[in-house]
Design brief:
The complex is a heterodimer. By secondary structure, chain A is mostly helical. Chain A contains 21 helices and 6 strands. In chain A, the strands form 3 sheets. In chain A, strands 1-2 form a two-stranded antiparallel sheet. In chain A, strands 3-4 form a two-stranded antiparallel ribbon. In chain A, a hairpin with a 3-residue loop joins strand 5 and strand 6. Chain A is globular and about 75 Å long. Chain A starts with a helix and ends with a helix. A two-stranded antiparallel sheet of chain B has the order 1-2. Chain B has one domain. Chain B is an all-alpha fold. The radius of gyration of chain B is 21 Å and the shape is globular. Classes of the chains: A mainly alpha, B mainly alpha. At the A-B interface, helix 2, helix 3, helix 4, helix 7 and helix 8 of A face helix 2, helix 3, helix 4, helix 7 and helix 13 of B.
Chain lengths: 520, 376
């Protein structure tokens, strides 16, 4: 059984795990903002409605946090277990972010516990402060984890090293890694079984790789990272808030509960603001980074088989309407420039015993073209889903603006909208607009992540290591995959059901139990 | 050992010790809570249900923190000992898979168990409780294979001889594993019962009946501990002579842990004595719990720390023991970069401070009853 067999089996369940974790972490990031808005209103109005909602949402947040921690543990372990090549990333560029994340994780737990046990006992402002700090930790966690993923998308600090094999790639910052170590690992994988895990568990091969990283903070200060952080964290918050919005909209439609509308009204302005900023500022920033640093991904999502000029796209991607948008044809020409060059021509033969000597005869141009074709093969899919993602984002924005104008008075805009929606009736309007927000934001975010991950194929570390080199060498049985898939789905379902129960059903403990407790 | 090696070895050891303390408390109290919930349903006994809810509060607060320190261990392994982690995730792929599956089930089942209480039928709720308890045991059942392998490499040795495929299954045949896991499970149950007895002997949570239950549950596990511990020690004599000699403090030790071993035996003797006296005292006077019972939990934690220190730290200066020889930590350490020690110190300090804050919350939540067992 080879790497491709494992790839076919592990990738779907990895995606399932990541998406499940993303769903829970989105709620963990969106709920604090809703809670902060509700605590503020509760403090101002002293209305019990808000306090009840705060308690319900807190219980949901706890179950969700537990599910998020479980799936997060799984994703983390899954990373080292199913994709053991990533241990190399964790022990180098990932070391600082992952250790910082520990503080965020512990901070989240401490603050969440503090919030729970003091809610209603201390002043609302104190509870609000606890929740705000919890939110800061949650965001910080997102920031540092995203930085590792960003480095795998754009391996900052490797300067021109990736161009050794792929001349169409740009320069990735200053040289902050050891050139010899970088090349050694690449060659070892090309010449060995092809599994990074087999290389990095062998102490003698590890010594041959040697010191790789000179700046442990490189992942944090990656140019590509800032855009990624802003874009990803905001997306997570939006999804979390959209789920809560949908929950309260459902409660209103099903039970005719007018109180639910008051809760929606409390946080819809925040959601609208985020949905406006996300595409216009953060999305645009992200797009520019992709255009600058990931030429193959940019060509794939824009369907650029041939280079062309497009004023709008040129302006959006490079702030220049006249910019040439480089397509696969020109990227392939760059590969031709190194055609005929052998590994031995560019890298002096070393005395590394673990290297297969035939490796030195490998044609770099051929390697370059082969990987480019693998990227190009994803173009129809990436191009299509990318524009579906844009559509999802627009739908979510439209839905949230619609709700905002319904709940708040914005002169003629609100009047016109209310007239149009009046034809449908308020219940249907709220339901439709909420569905638009929820489905649009989920669509945009899930596809966004898909594009981010698949867009860097065939590499896991862009321009450096392939997916099949990172994956486990252990032959994975279909039974294990099935078992994991079932466990994932069961946990997701159980957690979602528990959250639904908390939101909809009051707790009815045995009267005897209650009496016993009071007699203590 | 050079300075960095010793630092890495100690840091990993510290995280293992803290993790083990929390994890044993959650596993033991998880079983007590789940079983008392089940019995309360079968016997229609609200008193047992109340006990279940109250014991559960000990679990729920410690669980996430045990997870946190588990994550910290993983990060230390990945960051400081990546070669060892890469080896473990390959040769010990299946045992880690068992633990991983258990963790995924365990954490949400705890939250679901707590928040569905009174919202679903007692029968379904009891089943969720038992799922939670069983999945808790699954975690050490998987992870203890790693400890067995670094104490007496059975599968790793096969892997090093080129039989990697065979080694991945042979890992389940490690001869030191059966006594080790029995010792671990009995230890977790004992610590859970001691915590329970202790908790219900404190001023604000006084309940003689529940405290007595705690001691009663613990008694058979002390006996089992004695048996499993002796079995484990004998297996070390055969399969891991260095660790055995170090524990006994006899002939050619690399680290004399003999006095610590004696301290452990003494602590267990004191625990057993206090359990016996406490139980008798509570039987005689049904409305009084002897004050020393409140200290059983602390003693249980002390026993736990000493035991784990002996199992892991007494192998010094080696990380992996191979018969009469061993591999020092340097063989598995990160050579890909210089570990940024200042940031490690800052993070470690922050984690300790946050752990301190957590323990304070833990105290208030349990002793001042800030986390109510019955919602208002």
């Amino acid at each position: 059984m080879g790497p491709s067999d494992n790839l076919a089996k592990i990738i779907p369940v990895t995606y399932l795990g990541i998406y499940l974790h993303a769903a829970f972490l989105s709620i963990s990031m969106g709920t604090p903002l809703v809670l902060i808005a509700l605590i503020y209103l509760w403090n101002r109005s002293k209305n019990e409605l808000y306090f009840r909602a705060i308690k319900t949402l807190t219980s949901i947040l706890v179950v969700n946090f537990a599910a998020g921690a479980a799936t997060g543990t799984l994703v983390e372990f899954g990373l080292v277990q199913a994709w053991p090549g990533t241990i190399f990333v964790l022990s180098t560029v990932g070391f600082v972010p992952f250790t910082l994340e520990l503080i965020a994780f512990v901070g989240e737990i401490v603050l969440l516990l503090l919030f729970i046990i003091t809610l209603g006992r201390l002043k609302p402002f104190t509870s609000l402060t606890f929740m705000a700090i919890y939110f800061v930790f949650a965001v910080f966690s997102g920031v540092v984890i995203t930085s590792v993923n960003s480095w795998m998308n754009v391996p900052w600090g490797t300067a021109d090293l990736a161009r050794t094999f792929y001349p169409f790639l740009p320069t990735y910052g200053p040289l902050l890694v050891s050139e010899e170590s970088y090349i050694n690992l690449r060659l070892m994988l090309l010449s060995s079984s092809g599994f990074a895990s087999q290389v990095i568990q062998d102490p003698s091969m590890v010594r041959e790789i040697g010191k790789f990283l000179n700046d442990p903070f490189v992942a944090i200060f990656n140019e590509y990272n800032l855009a990624s952080v802003l874009h990803n964290v905001t997306a997570a918050i939006i999804i979390g808030m959209s789920i809560i919005l949908a929950g309260y909209a459902y409660s209103y439609v099903r039970n005719n509960n007018e109180d639910s509308l008051k809760i929606i009204r409390a946080f819809i302005p925040i959601l609208v603001a985020l949905l406006i900023v996300q595409p216009i500022v953060f999305g645009d920033f992200m797009g520019k980074m992709v255009a600058s640093y990931q030429p193959t991904k940019f060509a794939a999502i824009e369907g650029l088989y041939e280079s062309k000029k497009d004023p709008l796209l040129g302006f959006l991607a490079f702030n220049d309407p006249d910019a040439l948008l480089v397509g696969f044809n020109d990227l392939a020409k760059r590969c031709d420039e190194v055609s005929g060059f052998k590994i031995k021509d560019i890298i002096p033969a070393t005395s590394k015993t673990s290297l297969d000597q035939t490796l030195y005869e490998l044609d770099i141009g051929e390697l370059c073209r082969r990987d480019l074709i693998r990227t190009q093969n994803n173009t129809p899919l990436l191009n299509t889903v990318y524009y579906v993602k844009i559509g999802g984002g627009i739908a979510a924005l439209a839905g949230s603006v619609g709700l905002f104008l319904t709940f708040y008075n914005f002169g003629p805009f609100s009047k016109i909208l209310r007239k149009i929606l009046g034809l449908l009736g308020q219940k249907i309007s709220v339901a439709l607009l909420s569905i638009l927000v929820l489905s649009g934001s989920i669509l945009a975010s899930t596809i966004g992540w898909f594009v981010r991950e698949v867009g860097r194929s065939p590499w896991t570390i862009y321009g450096y290591l392939w997916k099949e080199e990172i994956i486990t060498a252990v032959p994975i049985d279909a039974v294990i995959i099935t078992m994991f898939t079932i466990t994932f789905l069961a946990i997701g379902l159980a957690s979602a059901s528990a959250m639904y129960l908390i939101a909809t059903r009051p707790q009815r403990l045995d009267e005897m139990l209650r009496r016993l407790s009071k007699n203590e | 050992m050079n300075e960095l090696e010793f630092f890495g070895f100690s840091l990993l050891g510290l995280s293992v010790l803290i993790h083990i303390v929390f994890v044993n408390i959650t596993i033991g109290t998880g079983w007590i809570s789940a079983v008392s919930r089940y019995l309360s349903w079968r016997r229609m006994d609200a008193d047992l249900e109340l006990m279940s809810r109250r014991v559960f509060r000990i679990l729920v607060i410690t669980e996430l923190f045990s997870g946190v320190w588990g994550t910290i261990m993983t990060v230390i392994l990945a960051g400081i000992f990546p070669t060892l982690l890469a080896l473990a995730t390959d040769v010990l792929f299946y045992p880690i898979l068992i633990s991983l599956t258990s963790i995924i089930i365990r954490i949400p089942s705890i939250a679901v168990f707590w928040y569905t209480w009174g919202r679903i039928s007692p029968r379904t709720h009891s089943v969720i409780g038992l799922v939670m308890a069983v999945s808790g045991l699954g975690v050490p059942i998987g992870f203890r294979y790693i400890f067995a392998e670094i104490t007496s490499p059975y599968a790793i040795r096969m892997a090093l001889e080129g039989m990697k495929e065979e080694a991945r299954l042979a890992v389940f045949l490690n001869p030191t594993y059966p006594p080790l896991i029995l010792h671990t499970i009995a230890g977790a149950m004992l610590v859970g019962s001691l915590m329970t007895a202790s908790y219900f002997a404190t001023k604000n949570n006084m309940n003689v009946k529940y405290s007595r239950y705690g001691i009663l549950i613990g008694l058979p596990f002390v006996v089992l501990q004695g048996f499993a511990g002796t079995w484990y020690l004998l297996s070390l004599m055969t399969y891991s002579p260095i660790l055995f000699r170090n524990l006994m403090g006899i002939g050619g030790v690399t680290f004399n842990a003999g006095p610590i071993f004696i301290a452990k035996v003494l602590v267990i003797a004191v625990i057993l004595f206090m359990m016996h006296m406490g139980y008798r005292g509570m039987k005689r006077e049904s409305n009084m719990t002897p004050s020393y019972v409140a200290h059983l939990g602390t003693l249980g934690v002390v026993m736990l720390i000493i035991s784990e220190f002996l199992n892991d730290g007494a192998r010094y200066p080696y990380m992996v023991l191979i018969g009469e020889d061993g591999l020092p930590p340097i063989n598995f350490m990160n050579v890909y970069m210089d570990i940024p020690l200042p940031i490690v110190y800052v993070i470690l300090g922050s984690l300790m401070v946050l752990t301190g804050v957590f323990l304070l919350i833990f105290y208030y939540a349990l002793n001042k009853r800030y986390l109510p067992e019955i919602p208002a």
